[in-house]
Automatic annotation (TrEMBL), chain A:
This is (2Fe-2S)-binding protein. InterPro entries: 2Fe-2S-bd (IPR002888), 2Fe-2S-bd_dom_sf (IPR036884), 2Fe-2S_ferredoxin-like_sf (IPR036010), 2Fe-2S_ferredoxin-type (IPR001041), Beta-grasp_dom_sf (IPR012675), Diverse_Oxidoreductases (IPR051452). It comes from Paractinoplanes bogorensis. Transmembrane segments: none annotated. Residues 1-77 form the 2Fe-2S ferredoxin-type domain. Keywords: 2Fe-2S, Iron, Iron-sulfur, Metal-binding, Oxidoreductase. The keyword Coiled coil does not apply. The lineage of its organism: Bacteria, Bacillati, Actinomycetota, Actinomycetes, Micromonosporales.
TrEMBL record, chain B:
It comes from Paractinoplanes bogorensis. This is Carbon-monoxide dehydrogenase large subunit. Residues 35-144 form the Aldehyde oxidase/xanthine dehydrogenase a/b hammerhead domain. Residues 1-21 are annotated as: Disordered. InterPro entries: Ald_Oxase/Xan_DH_a/b, Ald_Oxase/Xan_DH_a/b_sf, Ald_Oxase/xanthine_DH-like, AldOxase/xan_DH_MoCoBD1, AldOxase/xan_DH_MoCoBD2, AldOxase/xan_DH_Mopterin-bd_sf, CO_Mo_DH_lsu. One of its GO terms (molecular function) is anaerobic carbon-monoxide dehydrogenase activity. The keyword Oxidoreductase applies.
């Protein structure tokens, strides 16, 4: 089947199998490998992308379901050379170590700040509670989002 | 030797970035990772690349009667289907493990754990490969499994390892340390002896990136290029050469960006070998990435020690001795990654941070029908188990003596003037100054106030607990005279080359999985040679580009490879000094090093920078007699001893009496890892380890049903802490440099994973004191805590 969607402001049309997951469409078909895959059960959140501005786990969305919608991935966070404050915050506050969960975390945090520009620590923790980071212990991620909030 | 407790005066303050040396510095690896431009193994795309998927056993123990691959071979997009019989023909059906055992690559005779590799498919894409797996028809003759480790040596237990000639039971090895008679004598004359059965359940490191590989075998060149999720690329290359018979110089192992390791990516897994075979068979690059269930059920687990701890003391709280008996579950194959002379890893440090008169451990390890592994999950080679045992049993003693657990520990610490301290099990602790670390943790926590608060709450029926642990680790393996893995000494190489314009490249044998090597090692070299970290490229994770060494695990990067980096920089600096003497026309003795320059003593205006020296080294002018052009050096560092970081952790929990839910309210961690290179990175390492600790203490466990089905086979069943289960960490530090490490650093990667579980369990047990609870085994889930409150605490296995 054919699917057309907008990915990071660019319209793409591809011939795909109906069962293809969005995460594999992004990674294997479009070579946007910044979105990662970490489980099969919607628990880890390394695959989070924004679908029409809302965070979704792209391992449990069919590529076909994204047809006609807008997808934003980590590759679409920065505006050219200018980083999103979320990206800058993660760097400034050591919000990442191995960097594997980081794209998904940053996309969720971007959506959080879009809806709530000045979240409390508890709101930040709640927002990222559907995602797992094995490296940071989360405190520095919370600080990263606060940094982004202050510097937005 | 006198150890010094100091807060090192850094050339930075914590929020200031300076160009050279130690202190907080943003990470060099972050710019690519925050843009989604990291390159992980699954990101590798090669022209014509095929995809490999593995068929795994649904049974824990079964004879493989037949494997029919005909339908799979006919499936669309399939290029090859390979079984154990195929590999047998190639002599590749079995491979050595890191503990001199063997493990099946693909099963030929039997399957010995659920999830064991049986066959693989190579196809055009990952979906086609998975489709074909469904079409492989395997006939199994199901056998009784050995699941309960305590029944493994029963006379009628099914024999698991009938592949080993002459094997008649499931015994894996025996090991002992310390002096049994001396310990018995000490126990006989002690006022108080406390014994406790303690289980450290099987857990899994579960890094966010699963294991995988891309193999690309070039038949014309005879060269194998292998991208893989490995923490030890050089050791893997040598083992592939030995296993596959490929010449070592024709194997290039590349560990690209790695999405967390925690020990899970130390062993060689059958999947890596399958990818290599798949590429050889098809003549194409082949990618294998396991899924999450495969990762949880088949790759390196951790712990699984059933321990009985005994502690002997005087009535006034002087600890005399510790004795322990351990039953270790090693799964179906002994895949433990540890120095070969240390089958129980470094469990021998179970004497902890205390000055004892005697200690003894007796261990029996057995095979069961479970996945192999044994050393993984940031354990510093079984020190996690050792620290848990001693810190739990010390708390049991405190309860028995009705003594404050902090006071009991303070009373028994090895004293600063006793270092280097030889323990009763033969470990030589390099340096330590424990009391200030403990006092700092108590100060940050407000220990006295917490106890007062607890007393008030107890009077109201609220359950609040305060738990302490104090750990000493042994990391930085290790001296080659007695530490090797499959004959490979545990040394690390390092090469440093300074280019004509004064920029440099340093090549490491170790490999980051998130620890920030590209930053830390640039800082180490910068501190020694005065070139800013931004001007130093750190190359690692590619065997064609880096010197030999044993890799990153057991917190060994900074203690071993970090020492190599400092010393290679000093070698370059020594050569730079010779060149500077010619440039300034003075003797070498007339020069002094002021970070970044050689100056004439007493005349600082006469100086040359390292950058000027680099240009001269490559330039046209004369060099001193006997000095070659260029500015570079290499080294292979063999540590003279391990390093012994320590730390004091205090955990505060609240337990809901109605639901038995444990909430970690506060966690205070004061670490002493010797000289601190980048405090930001150190803090990050500690935070991550503390989160592991919450996971293990309260949530994580790989359990099995009686048929050997793994019950923790997905992240819905194997629970890992999220941001909601952990508090905002409170950290502090002391600095007791290692006397034998060139910059005094000791390593910190696993300290918090090792040190935090006993603090959390001690806190929960303390909270449950009104219920008369003295011990409860991890994971302290609400149901297990509920049972403990009702006097029904049972071991998890």
């Amino acid at each position: 089947m054919q699917v057309t969607m907008t990915v990071n402001d660019v319209e793409v049309t591809r011939e795909i199998e109906g069962r293809l997951l969005l995460v594999h469409f992004l990674r294997d078909v479009l070579s946007l490998t910044g979105t990662h895959w970490g489980c099969d059960t919607s628990n880890c959140g390394t695959c989070v992308v924004l679908l029409d501005g809302e965070p979704v786990k792209s391992c449990t969305v069919l590529a076909a379901m994204a047809g006609g919608h807008e997808v934003r991935t980590v590759e679409g966070l920065a505006d050219g050379a200018e980083l999103d404050p979320i990206q800058e915050g993660f760097m400034q506050c050591h919000g990442l170590q191995c960097g594997f969960c980081t794209p998904g975390m940053m996309m969720t945090c971007r959506a959080l700040l879009d809806n709530n520009p000045d979240p409390t620590d508890a709101e930040i923790r709640e927002a990222i509670s559907g995602q797992i980071c094995r490296c940071t212990g989360y405190a520095t991620i919370v600080r990263s989002v606060r940094w982004a909030s202050v510097h937005s | 030797m006198t150890t010094v407790h100091e807060s090192r005066t850094s050339s930075f303050d914590d929020n200031d970035q300076k160009p050279v040396g130690f202190g907080r510095m943003l990470r060099k690896e972050d710019p690519r990772l925050i843009r989604g431009r990291g390159r992980f193994t699954d990101d590798v795309q090669l022209p014509g690349m095929l995809h490999l998927a593995i068929l795994r056993s649904p049974f824990a123990h079964a004879r493989v009667v037949s494997v029919d691959t005909s339908a799979a071979e006919a499936s669309p997009g399939v290029r090859a289907v390979v079984t154990g019989e195929t590999l047998k023909g190639l002599g590749l059906a079995w491979m050595p493990t890191l503990s001199n055992d063997v493990q099946a690559v693909l099963a030929t005779d039997k399957v010995r754990f659920q999830g064991q590799e049986v066959a693989f498919v190579v196809a055009d894409d990952r979906y086609a490969a998975r489709d074909a797996l469904e079409l492989i028809d395997v006939e199994y003759d199901v056998l009784d499994p050995v699941i309960d480790v305590r029944q493994a040596l029963a006379p009628d237990a099914p024999l698991i390892r009938d592949d080993l000639e002459g094997k008649t039971n499931n015994h894996c090895f025996d090991w002992e340390t310390g002096d049994a008679d001396e310990t018995e004598a000490v126990f006989a004359r002690a006022d108080v002896v406390v014994a406790q059965d303690i289980v450290y359940p099987r857990v899994h490191p579960a890094p966010m990136e699963t294991c995988g590989a891309v193999a690309d075998f070039d038949a014309v060149e005879g060269k194998l290029k292998l991208w893989s999720t490995t923490q030890a690329p050089h050791a893997h290359r040598t083992l592939y050469a030995i296993v596959a018979g490929l010449p070592e110089h024709k194997i290039q192992v590349i560990a690209p960006d790695i999405g967390g390791g925690f020990g899970n990516k130390v062993p060689i897994y059958p999947g890596y070998v399958c990818a290599i075979v798949g590429s050889i068979v098809t003549g194409k690059p082949v990618k294998w990435m396991e899924d999450r269930s495969e990762n949880l059920i088949s790759t390196g687990f951790a712990r699984d020690y059933i321990m009985r701890g005994e502690i002997a003391a005087t009535r006034d709280g002087k600890i005399l001795g510790i004795r322990t008996n351990v039953l270790a579950d090693h799964g179906a194959f002994n895949g433990t990654a540890a120095p070969v002379k240390y089958p129980a890893g470094f469990f021998g440090v179970f004497t902890g941070s205390y000055d004892l008169e005697a200690a003894y451990c007796k261990m029996t390890a057995v095979y069961t029908n479970k996945a192999p592994g044994g050393v993984a999950y940031a354990c510093s080679f079984r020190i996690t188990e050792a620290v848990y045992l001693v810190e739990r049993i010390v708390d049991c003693l405190a309860a028995e003596l009705d003594m404050d657990p902090a006071e009991l520990r303070l009373k028994n610490f090895i004293q600063p003037d006793q270092f280097p301290y030889t323990t009763k099990t033969g470990w030589v602790y390099d340096s330590g100054n424990y009391e200030p670390t403990m006092r700092q943790a108590m100060d940050i926590a407000g220990y006295a106030e917490l106890r007062a608060e607890q007393a008030e709450k107890r009077a109201r029926g609220e359950l609040m607990g305060i738990g302490i642990s104090f750990f000493t680790e042994a990391v930085g393996a290790g001296p080659r005279k007695n530490m090797d893995i499959l004959g490979l000494g545990m040394a690390d190489g390092c090469e440093l080359r300074v280019h004509p314009t004064g920029k440099a490249v340093v090549r490491l044998s170790v490999k980051t999985q998130g620890q920030g090597h590209e930053t830390t090692f640039a800082q180490i070299v910068a501190e020694e040679i005065g070139i800013p970290p931004a001007d130093i490229e750190v190359v690692h994770g590619d065997t064609d580009q880096t010197p030999f060494g044993l890799g990153t695990y057991g917190s060994r990067s900074t203690p071993v490879s970090g020492a190599a980096a400092a010393l290679v920089a000093r070698k370059v600096r020594d050569k730079a000094q010779l060149i500077a003497s010619a440039m300034l026309e003075v003797t070498v003795a007339d020069l002094e090093w002021v970070k970044g320059s050689f100056q004439v003593k007493g005349d600082p205006a006469k100086a040359v920078t390292i950058q000027q020296i680099a240009m001269r080294a490559h330039g046209a002018g004369d060099l001193p007699d006997g000095v070659e052009g260029g500015l570079e050096a290499q080294i292979c560092y063999n540590p003279s001893n391990l390093t012994y970081p320590h730390g004091a952790y205090i955990c505060v929990v609240d337990v809901d009496p109605g639901t038995a839910q444990v909430k970690v309210r506060r966690f205070i961690a004061v670490d002493d890892c010797g000289t601190r290179i980048n405090p930001m990175i150190i803090e990050g390492q500690v935070h991550g380890g503390l989160t592991d600790g919450v996971g293990m203490a309260l949530m994580e466990m790989i359990s099995f049903d009686e048929d050997g089905n793994c019950l923790g086979a997905s992240l819905m069943d194997y629970l890992i802490p999220t941001a909601l289960e952990v508090p905002d960490w409170e950290t502090g530090y002391t600095v007791t440099p290692s006397p034998h490490h060139p910059i005094g650093a000791k390593g910190v990667g696993e300290s918090a994973t090792v040190g935090s579980p006993p603090a959390i369990v001690n806190a929960v047990v303390d909270a449950l004191k009104p219920y008369g609870v003295r011990h409860a085994d991890m994971p302290l889930t609400p149901s297990r805590v509920w049972d403990a409150m009702r006097g029904r605490a049972t071991p998890p296995i």
